From TrEMBL:
Classification via Pfam families: PMP22_Claudin (PF00822)
Family: Belongs to the claudin family.
Signal peptide (from-to): 1-24
Gene that produces this protein: Cldn20
Transmembrane segments: 84-102, 117-140, 161-181
UniProt-listed InterPro entries: Claudin, Claudin_CS, PMP22/EMP/MP20/Claudin
Gene Ontology molecular functions: structural molecule activity
Keywords assigned: Cell junction, Cell membrane, Membrane, Signal, Tight junction, Transmembrane, Transmembrane helix
Biological classification of the source: Eukaryota, Metazoa, Chordata, Craniata, Vertebrata
Identification of the protein by name: Claudin
Entry's localization field: Cell junction, Tight junction; Cell membrane
Keyword Transmembrane: yes
Broad class of where this protein is predominantly found: other
Cellular compartments per GO CC: bicellular tight junction; plasma membrane
Species name: Sitta europaea (Eurasian nuthatch)
Function: Claudins function as major constituents of the tight junction complexes that regulate the permeability of epithelia.
Length: 219
């Protein structure tokens, strides 16, 4: 029962991780630059994401521009696009597989099949967490290195946006969920190996008859 509740908790974490990965992939605020200027009316917030660049004015106007050209983008943005999409796909596969393999569901057949499905779903979550953690770390490193570069003007410097933090948290949720699913299955298999089922040996009737026959001969 404790293992089933732990798997359910890991499943909830994985759901938050999936939604967080999807949101981080689509949000345009991977890096943010606020240019107040000399007047508060001309304040501008520039946001750059994986798929579009947006500008938010203090008057309430909002405009976005899609990034159509892939080859013109920096390498870390291209890598972030690929890895985040892979993270979303793997985490979605993990949700489907663990739904079958969880102990609190009636899907998946016998216990061994459900155990293997849970382990496979945990591996998907771990891979999705790694794929989601790599681009966020790389993107953050590029932002910090550009921010500390003295040759870059202040107007071109950015800070990490909310999508980066969402990606970090989602990757952590997926990693924790994957470790819980894999460790629960491993503990169960290990307990089966350490404590094998007891085998009861009963004397055969043939031996009893032979023993009785030999006693009659000696009477």
């Amino acid at each position: 029962m404790a293992s089933a509740s732990l798997q359910f908790f890991a499943f909830i974490l994985a759901l938050f991780g999936v939604f967080g990965d999807i949101a981080a992939t689509l949000l345009p605020n991977w890096k943010v630059n606020a240019d107040v200027g000399s007047n508060i009316i001309t304040a501008i917030t520039q946001m750059q994401g994986l798929w579009m660049d947006c500008t938010w004015y203090s008057t309430g106007m909002f405009s976005c521009t899609l990034k159509y050209s892939i080859l013109s983008l920096p390498v870390y943005i291209q890598a972030a696009r690929t890895t985040m999409v892979l993270a979303c796909i793997l985490s979605a596969f993990g949700i489907c597989i663990t739904t079958v393999g969880m102990k609190c569901t009636r899907l998946g057949g016998d216990t061994d099949s459900k155990n293997n499905a849970s382990f496979a779903g945990g591996i998907c979550f771990i891979l999705a967490g790694i794929f989601g953690l790599v681009p966020t770390c790389w993107y953050t490193r590029e932002i910090i290195s550009n921010f500390l570069d003295q040759t870059i003007p202040e107007s071109s410097k950015h800070e990490p946006g909310g999508a980066v933090y969402t990606g970090f948290i989602s990757a952590g949720f997926l990693l924790i969920a994957g470790v819980i699913f894999c460790s629960s299955c491993f503990k169960r298999q290990q307990g089966t190996w350490i404590y094998p089922p007891k085998q009861h040996h009963f004397p055969s009737t043939e031996q009893e008859s032979n023993a009785g026959y030999s006693l009659k001969d000696y009477v």
